[in-house]
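Quick one: structure for this chain?
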Amino acid sequence: MTRAPATPPARERLLTAAGELFYASGIAATGVDAVLTRAGVSPATMYAHFAGKDALVAAYLGRRHERWRLTWDEVLAERDDPVDRLLSLFDAVARYRSREGNGRGCAFLAAATELPADHPGHPWLEADTRLLGERLRELASAAGLLDPEEAAATLLLLYDGALNRFARAATTPGLPGDDPLARARRLAAAWIGTQLSDPRAG
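Got it. Here's what it folds into:
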């Protein structure tokens, strides 16, 4: 006899529901009632796990950040070439999007436009920015780029642009259907080739 799949714990259902709704509709536009209905839990159950919507938003962003970091770690573990490791940013976010089913842009960039500076979710926005900047600088240095700081800023600009292109495409039918991440990766690879201290390394 086949057993029915176990029902996830209430906290997990709340985070999954919040993640789906906050990402698709926006944090401000998503009320607690919608999350409760999607998760199939009572208000009392939610408040047993989270002090309120702000705490739920913070937990949603924290879980998303951790999943993104682990995906990037996974891709890096598969790469040996220093330049390929630097370009792993674009491959990692493509893998993350395929797993999470993300049809829109970056959840952290979107949240940054909605959350005030004193919101409990704001530290996760800062953590995402630190992860990107610090890791890109380290990878650029290991790849032998002349100015790792400039390299990190340039790749981050291409990364943000690609993710914002997804957001624009989600709200503007008829845009060209090319892959923004693939284009950003090609541009990054070409730029990196001009910045190596030893051009033969590329």
